[in-house]
Amino acid sequence: MPKLILVRHGQSEWNLANRFTGWWDVDVTEKGVEEAREAGRLMKAKGVLPTIAFTSVQKRAIKTLHLALEECERLWIPETKNWQLNERHYGGLTGLNKQETREKHGDEQVQIWRRSFDVPPPEMPKGDQYDPGNDPRYDGIDVPQTESLKLTIERVLPYWEGTILPELEKGETVIISAHGNSLRALVKHLSGISDEDITGLEIPTGQPIIYEFDDAMQPGERYYLKDS
Ligand SMILES: O=C(O)[C@H](O)COP(=O)(O)O
């Protein structure tokens, strides 16, 4: 049965500092490194070993992938990086402290920006200090100025359907190392979660989530590898 492993990057520097991150390219912390390694040790212990890997173009996800693969002795597998697996773009909130933003705009507004299905955060002004628009990794890409979960889904799903799903159909064990909201986008699709209920779904850092696909390529119930 083809298996899909989803892992959110280990704790990042801005997870620790409680800052909105989005497309800003922060590193993992020491704790994040350990979370990533632990994910790899768990995959090894459970015998769930990826044969092909996908990740974003952001170093917290790339490093998490490599650390996990190193621990389960799978650094050699083919790996593809694509911006469509990036974190949701946090617009003008990028770089701000989440608690200070709550104090300024109220808990309810911040919760809407963070978890509503289709309300995007305010746009990031062009040329903002956190605007990745001129970064060579985004050459030829229309970098968004903000993204809701809905907009994130609109660029994650074509990549899932066009590039990742065909690998599962071949029988590969696929690992995707990505981000809280690009993974929420995928889980919403795979688990058929409604626009309302997706607001309550959180994806923890460094915890492999598994989907097993049947012969008709229908995903079963997702579960945490640690609970299997
Ligand atoms: O981009 C970020 O700030 C985090 O990775 C995810 O943030 P969230 O939990 O506010 O969606």
From TrEMBL:
CDD domains: HP_PGM_like. The record marks H179 as: Transition state stabilizer. The active site is at H9, E87. It comes from the Bacteria. It is an enzyme of class 5 (isomerase). Keywords: Gluconeogenesis, Glycolysis, Isomerase. It catalyses: (2R)-2-phosphoglycerate = (2R)-3-phosphoglycerate. This is 2,3-bisphosphoglycerate-dependent phosphoglycerate mutase. The lineage of its organism: Bacteria, Pseudomonadati, Pseudomonadota, Alphaproteobacteria, Sphingomonadales.
